[in-house]
Each structure stands twice: as structure tokens, then as C-alpha cells.
Specification:
Distance between the termini of chain B: 36 Å
Number of helices of chain A: 0
Largest sheet of chain A: 6 strands, mixed
Largest sheet of chain B: 7 strands, mixed
Shape of chain B: globular
Strand content of chain B: over 45%
Number of strands of chain A: 11
Structural class of chain A: mainly beta
Helix content of chain B: under 10%
Structural class of chain B: mainly beta
Number of helices of chain B: 0
Oligomer: heterodimer
Order of helices and strands of chain A: EEEEEEEEEEE
Largest interface: A-B, 22 and 26 residues
Chain lengths: 110, 112
């Protein structure tokens, strides 16, 4: 099974609302990254958080990391139609093995 | 600066045929990866190479082989293609630190 399991699998919210998605992983990590993928396109890097960091912000994105619970969350504030996409977490370990989560499909309703 | 170059972009194979997907990066990254992505799914790691001269299995290695030819190039070979290998394949490279994975544009492979 994949290292990262994401929750929820799908999320539909109204434009302007906040979206929160969660990622859980199984082993010790160096970093955790979040990516966005629009339908039929490649992955776009959003944010990287190191294992010794607890929170990181980038524009409307806020990522938290709880290594004791082996989990991370991605918050997108004030959602826009353009945020409609799939979001994936990815973890890398000491061996440089990088595993992706199963993803959250986010739909923003106008 | 090309980043990660992956070829071919599209390929159709018949069951049992073989092919090699090529990947090259010009960012002097140590680590390189091959992933597959099935429709509606996340990326699954096939093989990776943490550094030149090493390769390791990922989550779904069966039916594939890899070669880290040098620091720049990492190829993926399907010896006997099966319909279950129909997927989009992504190559990526990475260096430890504060940098993300850098992806190629993907190869859409169909096995009939």
C-alpha cells in the first residue's frame, strides 16, 4: 500500500470556503511535500515542509506536520475555481525513497 | 535549461513487446525516479536510484527493469509488455534539501 494515505478522497466546497485535506504516512521521513495536479496534466509543486518544522505558509496555503502522529494537513484558504484539482502528499525518507499518497480530488463549486 | 526530458511522449505496444523509456536530467541531481499513474489514481513508485550506481525497487517493480546509465540518465525497460502496464509514466529527479521533485512531461503507454 502507498506510504501516504489521504483523506478525504474527494472534497466539494463552495468558492470562497476553506479546504482542508489530510495525509498520513507510515515511516520516518525527512521532508513532506504537497503537489497539485490538474486533470490530464503534470504535477505542480506547492510546498515542502521539513521533518523538524511544524507549520509552513505560502500564499493561501498552510501546511502543518505532526511527526508524532505521522500526519500532515494542507489548508487552502478562500478557495477559487482554479483550485479545482487533485492534491497529493509525498514523503521522502533517509534512503531518498519518495512515495506519494493516494490523493484528494478537490472540486470548487461556483 | 531543459530540466527532465522524457521520451517518448506516446507509445502503443502489443502484448509481449518490449520497450525502453528514456529519461535524462541536466540539473546534476543525485536521485532519479520512475512512477506510473493509472487513471484516477496517485503516483506509484516503480524503481528509484538514490545515487549514480544504485537502483532500488519501489512499490510496483514487477515487470520492469531499470538502468542508471550515468548521473544524468535513468531508463525504464518493459521486457514483455502486458495490458496491466497501460498507464502514464513519469520520470523525476531530486536532490536532498529544500528542493522539490522535478518531473518529465510523462509517457502515455497503451498495451493492447
Amino acid at each position: 500500500s502507498q506510504q501516504g494515505e489521504e483523506d478525504p478522497q474527494a472534497l466539494s466546497i463552495q468558492e470562497g470556503e476553506n479546504a482542508t485535506m489530510n495525509c498520513s504516512y507510515k515511516t520516518s521521513i525527512n521532508n513532506l511535500q504537497w503537489y497539485r495536479q490538474n486533470s490530464g496534466r503534470g504535477l505542480v509543486h506547492l510546498i515542502l515542509i521539513r521533518s523538524n518544522e511544524r507549520e509552513k505558509h505560502s500564499g493561501r496555503l498552510r501546511v502543518t506536520l505532526d511527526t508524532s502522529k505521522k500526519s500532515s494537513s494542507l489548508l487552502i484558504t478562500a478557495s477559487r475555481a482554479a483550485d479545482t484539482a487533485s492534491y497529493f502528499c509525498a514523503t521522502d525518507d533517509r534512503a531518498s525513497k519518495i512515495i506519494f499518497g493516494s490523493g484528494t480530488r478537490l472540486s470548487i463549486r461556483p | 535549461n531543459a530540466g527532465v526530458t522524457q521520451t517518448p511522449k506516446f507509445q502503443v505496444l502489443k502484448t509481449g513487446q518490449s520497450m525502453t523509456l528514456q529519461c535524462a536530467q541536466d540539473m546534476n541531481h543525485n536521485s532519479m525516479y520512475w512512477y506510473r499513474q493509472d487513471p484516477g489514481m496517485g503516483l506509484r513508485l516503480i524503481y528509484y536510484s538514490a545515487s549514480e550506481g544504485t537502483t532500488d525497487k519501489g512499490e510496483v517493480p514487477n515487470g520492469y527493469n531499470v538502468s542508471r546509465l550515468n548521473k544524468r540518465e535513468f531508463s525504464l525497460r518493459l521486457e514483455s509488455a502486458a495490458p496491466s502496464q497501460t498507464s502514464v509514466y513519469f520520470c523525476a529527479s531530486f536532490n536532498r534539501g529544500n528542493s522539490p521533485l522535478h518531473f518529465g512531461n510523462g509517457t502515455r503507454l497503451t498495451v493492447t
